[in-house]
Amino acid sequence: MHTHSIAAIRRHLSxxxxxSKELCAHLLAxxxxxNETNNAFIEITEKEALSAAEQADNTRASGxxxxxxxxxxxxxxxxxxxxxxTSCGSKMLKNFVPPYDATVVDKLAASGAITLGKTNMDxxxxxxxxxxxxxxxxxxxxxxxxxPGGSSGGSAAAVAARMVPxxxxxxxxxxxxxxxxxCGITGIKPTYGRVSRYGMVAFASxxxxxxxxxxxxxxxxxxxxxxxxxxxxxxxxxxxxxDQYSAELNRSLDGLRVGLPRQYFSSDxxxxxxxxxxxxxxxLTRLGVSFVEVDLKNQSLAVPAYYVVAPAECSSNLxxxxxxxxxxxxxxxxxxxxxxxxxRAEGFGREVKRRILIGTYALSAGYYDAYYLKAQKVRNLxxxxxxxxxxxxxxxxxxxxPTPAFKQGENSDDPVAMYLNDxxxxxxxxxxxxxxxxxxxxxxxxxxxLQLIGNYFDEARLLNIAxxxxxxxxxxxxxxxxxxx
Length: 485
Ligand code: GLN
Fold this sequence. Notes:
By secondary structure, this protein is of the alpha/beta class. The protein has helices at about 5-15, 20-40, 45-60, 105-110, 155-160, 175-185, 215-225, 270-285, 300-315, 335-345, 350-365, 370-390, 415-420, 425-430, 460-470, 480-485; strands at about 40-45, 70-75, 115-120, 165-170, 185-190, 210-215, 255-260, 290-295, 395-400, 435-445, 445-455. Helix 8 links the parallel strand 7 (about 255-260) and strand 8.
């Protein structure tokens, strides 16, 4: 049963082929066993899950039919979960037990989903390899010596290892799409404002967006229908009806115009990834899609602009962790300043400190105009490139990552090399556009992903294209040999 998609699980549960409790018990046993090697989970909520599953089975027996009734999933440990520790991958929040659920957690529970646990992640979602977690790194199920990507590395590895059919993730600069690509699964970062950020620990508030990760686009559609929607508790949430993503999966692609950004198919891209994309382009052409080149001329500025804007916002957001109100507090402070300094020095890891320092510097009075303001202007130019491109095309297609998953430790001493991993994903965050990654092939046994970037609120179209692609390809059905067994 652990290889079943959510769509299949829904059928099996409603046919009575197995109960939610049986399914959850089976998955929990797998999680406990596989976690020893891959460390995808930080928290396993077995007791709560089994009792929720039993309740879901009873609800079903008395006629309940919520869309995800009895469907197991796991949340990235950035989403607050009532009475369940939410660490955000940090020593700072090692003992933080929220008194409330994030809206995303709430909404999925209201649709009947069962939470099996919390997944590992880079500390405060800062990273591209999950090596920045206080709880240790996560192994990529395709090759344990390689990273699963980050920051939602635990969420991606958990789905790839079929520990759970789906997970939540968050994406500030690529953290849903890049790990999805590295682990051979499907993930979508919705339009900024589509999914509530309430109860999602803030990294860079103008970029952060939650979304689903699963094996198929169809499952992502089913999850996003439940996760999305207006939330008055998030002032950036957008009050617009949620599309029925799953009802639009079967729309024909005939006549669709897709843009290929010249800048995404440059020499930065590994040749075998370019080949995999070319095959995907041919596949989509057979489905009636036509392709045209588009020019996103300011793309090369996206990574530098992001590494000013994101640290600036993080330095402000993370100032709340002061040893007084939340999280880690140092032993025996001699005065208030000592309390702040030592609590923060002890509670945050290296990468988080690096970002706080860069961000504080960029926001300081003497440098604000030169860095932060300039980065915001560049951000505008990047958005304008997309606006212009979408005058001629419906969707943009490119790679998700420049290379397949790299080895653990390979980029650890070179932050810039690490940052460049997000070269193709960051632009959509800066513009606030929806973007999806779906498996499109293998390079030396490692999965690679294609990325679709849509216009604002065009999630339905992205999911539709990915679903149609998945009807004629089987990249998304591949799994690591030991997992299949
Ligand atoms: N890898 C990027 C960073 O470290 C993006 C992270 C994210 O999307 N949360 O900032």
